[in-house]
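thread: overnight batch results

M.L. [08:02]
morning all. the overnight job finished for the chain we discussed friday. pasting input first so we're all looking at the same thing
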Amino acid sequence: MFKTYYTATLSACLALAQTCAAQAQDADQNGWYLRGGPVGIFFSPGADLSVGGAPFPGADVSVDDNYSLSFDVGYRVNEQISATFTFGIPPTAEIRGDGSLAGAYLGDVTYAPAILALQYRFPTGNPMFEPYVGAGINYTMILDSKARDVAGFDVENAWGAVLQVGFESMINERMGIYFDVKKIWLDADVKGTLGVGGPSATGSATLDPLLVGTGLVWRF
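M.L. [08:03]
and the structure it wrote out:
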């Protein structure tokens, strides 16, 4: 009987220890964290333009790839749910004409995307590989527009939807590395004047950037 009691007590203690360890692990995972590192920004551009109030057929644009530094301020609610606010050092993109606008250098745009997103983290039990998916909203602020071949070239601030996928690999309890991919669906209103005293041009530019980043994670 004593042996049975001892076995039951030991089993209960082991179960309690495992529960406490799991709770402690969850507690370590929860809370605030920072991420930061280089990011590549790769556009899938297009355009729908009107000149002098009439459609301008065949008009298109191209946007050069950009590289910058991106930062996340995140909060992990529990093992599976987290939220992030993403910002970065504003890059400058060259916007050039394509199609019937080929050869035209429309202008330069300095922009600052800000992203608010929620993530679902797949529990793997392995801190070296913690994959996640996410979704959210993006607000891209245009900080500066410089006209080139189009006088008065201007791009408006714009909202867009975001999907996200990535993973984290923790080196220890506080520090790790991450790899992250975000797709943004983004259309921005544009306007300008073709040539000196020429007709006004207005329209919508499709940008749809893909953000690919990596860097360090630090959990508080």
